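Box 4.2: Ligand-aware structure prediction
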Amino acid sequence: MAIRKDANTLSSTERTELVNAILQLKAEGIYDQFVLRHANATMMAIHSCPAFLPWHRRFLWDLEKELQRVSGNPNLGIPYWNWPEGGENASMWDDDLLGGDGDAGGIVRSGPFRSGRWTVVNSSGRASGPLERGFGRNTNGINLPTHSEIEQLLQITPYDTSPWNRDSNPSFRNSLEGWAGNLSFHNLGHVWVGGSMLPMTSPNDPVFFFHHCMVDKLWHQWQSRFPSQAYLPVTGGNMGQNLTATMDSTPFASIGRRPIDVLDSNALGIVYDNGFEIPPPPPPPLVINLNAAATSANIATAGEVDQYRFDVASFSEVTIETSGSSDTFITLFGPNNATDQIAQNDDGGDKLNSKITLNLSAGKYYVSVRLFSPEATGSYSIKVSSKSNSGNSSLPELIVDAVATSAAISAKNESDVYRFSVTRRAFHTIETTGTTDTFLSLFGPDDETLLIEQNDDGGARFNSRIRRILAAGEYYARVRHYSPDGTGAYSISVKKK
Ligand SMILES: [Cu+2]
């Protein structure tokens, strides 16, 4: 079992054991093989993509097994670089562990990896000089991430999203990697150390493994916090990115080479110390009644997030809005689960207030409210109102075997709900046509919340198709874009066949 600790907390015995194990792997030529495995992988197959996190998790796991072998300590874990406590004066940079900053010319002159004792290799594996560092010299004054910035990061869902690259947003992976948002956690760490940590041969600096251990730990914490948020994409990603695809430049070992093989840190025998405890579950959300007077609340502690729930009885247009002088930020989740994000809003309401208006089908919905600035505190009020449609009869009806109905997803996160009647038990095909990547859900009979089947790309190209035997009754078809940000026109039809 690998016990991974905050590098600053290692005892002097633990430091000596780890440094000796790294030096031993270097002497055996194995350390440099890890540098080459990273340097010669296809850049965009292991970075700026969904497999970024599982690829590096497996990479660390492999090095850790080698460290355990040469040290004879089966519990040796790669320590993590606790960024908020890991500035240049942190003890992890002492001469008994990583050594410190480079000199004026960038050359590391102290510690076990100093010039004359440790040589870096180029991407062909040839020795190419001493280790170089330049703490904070390339970051334009930007410091390492703080605890509250990390907490903000850990609230982002889903795991990843189309187009599955450095433009993905919202995406936990892309934010942690450092392309989305204005903080660049992983990228910043590489740039902050500078020198040998900048090119694809960055594992030449042993702090690479400490750094990626922190990245991996945050992914692990996020997974623990959102157990229902899966690795994405399952299908439709580039080579080596889907859940069950083989990842680039990953050798055979006792564990597999696919993202699915490394999703569970506990199953891989990895234990993190309690430097960052998994936060206690939040209190149950406060229930808000639709169209009731506004509920007053207060963010008393910086970074606090308030949780609410409301129930929609039948398809209707719902508005969630805050009032008051605080700069609020709201996120809507559901239906019927607290983790599938539907929409977010910062200043859509009056002044700095937030507002979301959406057509929602029947179900339970969850709203989180925080203040835009993680440092701020202040009060606000929240209210949820619905413009009632007179029951389901207000839903557009699809006539079985009639010509297709044309419609469009015209805003982010929009979903269109239709009803149709089945008079006699028979095979029915519900399908979309057009060039939009639709996602179709079928509910019923006679219950708008009873999910029967979902389909993404079962139709032509990116269209959806569901074909099954339906008994007599009323059914509901919901169409949304596959991507939460996507919009586009489509047609939908129901045929008896
Ligand atoms: Cu990398």
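In the box above, the bound molecule is copper (II) ion. The helical segments are 12-27, 30-39, 43-46, 52-71, 147-153, 172-177, 185-193, 207-225.
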